[in-house]
Amino acid sequence: MARVPLSTPRRFWPGPPKARAEPVVPMINVVFLLLIFFLMTAQFADPGSAGRSKLSVEEAPGPMRSVLILAPSGLVSFGTLRGEAAITAAAGAGPVRLQTDGQTDAAALARLLTSLAQAGAGRVDLVTTGKAAQ
């Protein structure tokens, strides 16, 4: 006679749950939907917009501005002129481009800027060369 088990063993506590892999496909779908949304709502600038320079290769460049130079010693020169004559000539030539060294004393620069304002210079562009004194 064959032996028949009356009951099968059962586990009432299944133990720790198995680690399930997170589905990545829905996350990829969301990223692509966001990418498509931002591409559809973005406004791109016209390549021929007014923000571009109107200068073309055929046009001649404008005249070069002369440079007012302030030496670290305090000497001011504009072309062949020196001192007050240089300041007056630079102020009368239009926007002034002032070039100085990083070692120039700030008080000398302030005096020169005051002299340029009194001479009638409306705009002064400051260009420094070298490293500033620490």
TrEMBL record:
One of its GO terms (cellular component) is plasma membrane. InterPro entries: ExbD (IPR003400). The chain crosses the membrane at residues 24-45. It comes from the Bacteria. GO terms for biological process: protein transport. The keyword Secreted does not apply. One of its GO terms (molecular function) is transmembrane transporter activity. Pfam families: ExbD (PF02472). It is a single-pass membrane protein; Single-pass type II membrane protein. Belongs to the ExbD/TolR family. This is Biopolymer transport protein ExbD/TolR. It comes from Antarctobacter heliothermus.
